[in-house]
Amino acid sequence: MAVDAIKLRRSVRKYEEKEVTDGDLEQVLDAARYAASWANKQGWHIVVAKNAGTRAKVSEAIEGNPGARAVGQAPVLLAVCMDPEASGDMNGKPYYMTDAGILMDHLMLAAADLGLGTVFIGAFDEEKVRPILGVPGKFRIVGLTPLGHPAKMPGERPRNELGDIVHRETW
Question: pLDDT (tens digit, 9 = 90+) per residue, 86-129?
């Protein structure tokens, strides 16, 4: 995986009508659980929704988001949920969002390594999605991603040059 998967990962919004094997799904989920977390708190939970009706309801609930159609189209929806209290904070800085981002990155890269597509969906009304997925109130639904075989793989996007973003020793 590693560098190849990092460079190949794309935001996929169109999926084939092809199931994700249980083995591939388990590999993606297993890779996610190895994500780093603040003080190794691991305050995450992942909801796996394969039911077409459930995915359609979530798609409708997040209507207006560019990834909404993909949620209903892909054979699997993953919802990354965090317990802010379990993740902890230090100096007023809560770590649950950072922990969720690292976890999401792990699962997206594992998916890319298996030739599967994902797209991080973070802009949605949590309270519309919560009852559909049965997420308890103390948990935040930080991100959603469809998971499936890309019908269309987006091309490479431009990246900033290292010299434009890296500052050595000082800014």
Answer: 888 888 899 999 999 999 999 999 999 999 999 999 999 999 99
Does an H or E element contain 147, and which? Answer: strand 140-147
Determine, yes or no, domain membership for 120.
Answer: yes
Residues linked to residue 142 through DSSP beta bridges, in sequence order: none
Cα separation, 80 vs 142, in Å, equals 6
Is this prediction's pTM over 0.85? yes
The answer to whether residue 99 sits within a structural domain is yes
Distance CA 95, CA 37 (A): 8
- b/e per residue 19-29 (b: at least 16 CB within 10 A): ebeeebbebbb
Instruction: Quote the DSSP letter at residue 143.
Output: E
pLDDT tens figures, 65-82: 999 999 999 999 999 999
- Domain assignment present for 153: no
Q: Is position 28 within any domain?
A: no
Cβ-based neighbours of 65, under 8 Å, separated by 6 or more: 121, 123, 124
